[in-house]
């Protein structure tokens, strides 16, 4: 049995689809609200939806019962208790979604949290594979309301190109790691196939929408972005996000890596593919 957490999210949904398509069952999908997931038709036929909340590790017992392999999206709750619950349930192998910032910006608070859960997992006695993806293409969904309303997208560091990754590529790597034992004990930094800036992403979405004129875009200062983000995510998280999206980037973060094609055997998906596949979100 494979349990996919974050199963209604960008990566988990794609992972369930891949595992199901390749007959890698039985499959179980964790969600906090199975009725909502069913109404969204989020899971492929035959996938068992099970409710559980990382914030209440006791609630994970049923979900973890009989599970041998676990796809674990980190930092959604008390990771120490979640890892302990997996170990107690007899899980043999965990594929963990961490972040590339664990190696590019280990001084930042969120990266330290990622490093802490990586250490917990390594010390757990279970076999592990750690995925460290860079910025997700799906972060562009934060612009969907502006694009639908026709108001300008406002973003800082407009021309900093990062090798943004399609969540389906994280899922593809996870599928391989979950089904082939040779990936145990490995840590993989994952990126997309080319750098793309915020301005370039907006252009790609405009093209996917078939717009003849560019979507309105305004570059804003770090301070303006900070004030908006700190109000929602808190000051430390806002500073960290601004550093890793342009304010304090480094060669490690900017590097395009061949890990995705190397592990999956197929080229990494470019941002414009993600934009085409998700165009409905911007209509
Ligand atoms: N975005 C980036 O650029 C980036 C970069 C590197 C790493 N990451 C990591 O990627 C992860 C996000 O992945 P994603 O984009 O695939 O997810 P997502 O689309 O943001 O969806 C979040 C998922 O987590 C589940 N979830 C939320 N709170 C939960 C809780 N308390 N208990 C159990 N499940 C919970 C949700 O399920 P239900 O609502 O159905 O319960 C949903 O499936 C984060 O851990 C983040 O640190 C993101």
From TrEMBL:
Residues 6-180 form the NAD(P)-binding domain. Pfam families: NAD_binding_10. Coiled coil: none annotated. Signal peptide: none annotated. It comes from the Bacteria. This is NAD(P)H-binding protein. It comes from Streptomyces cavernicola. InterPro entries: Ergot_Alk_Oxidoreductase, NAD(P)-bd_dom, NAD(P)-bd_dom_sf.
